[in-house]
Specification:
Layout (H helix, E strand, L loop, with lengths): L2 H9 L3 H13 L3 H8 E8 L9 E2 L1 H14 E9 L3 E3 L2 E12 L3 E14 L2 E8 L1
Parallel strand pairs: 1-7
Antiparallel strand pairs: 1-2, 3-5, 4-5, 5-6, 6-7
Helix pairs in contact: 2-3
Length: about 130
Amino acid sequence: MTTQQESTRELHMTTQQVADRFYELAKEGRWEDIQSELFSEDAKSIEPQHAPLPLAEGLSAIRKKAEQWQEMTEETHGGYCNEPIVAGNFFACAMGMDVTLKGQGRSTMDEIALYEVRDGKIVQEQFFY
């Protein structure tokens, strides 16, 4: 391995470091910062088949999906993100929110979010609810 490769490798955050930073930002509701700082440009976001928002591939598509969610949301009343559990290149969080969606009324949602980390960046997120 060349010195440049070693230097590059040393700059990558571990999965634990990514999970810790994710949690720090999530507790503050800084979802845009999470995407900007922790996501790979070619990340993928996967929702269950019954979800209203489609699969998103690439960071720009993931941001667009977040915008679509905001457009569907009339008001956010609260939310939570539990501390991540890390295993290998993955971490998972239980999270949820209390929202009023336009034309649908107020509801609470709980989910498990699973994140895959490669080279110090989130390359995939998948939600189970």
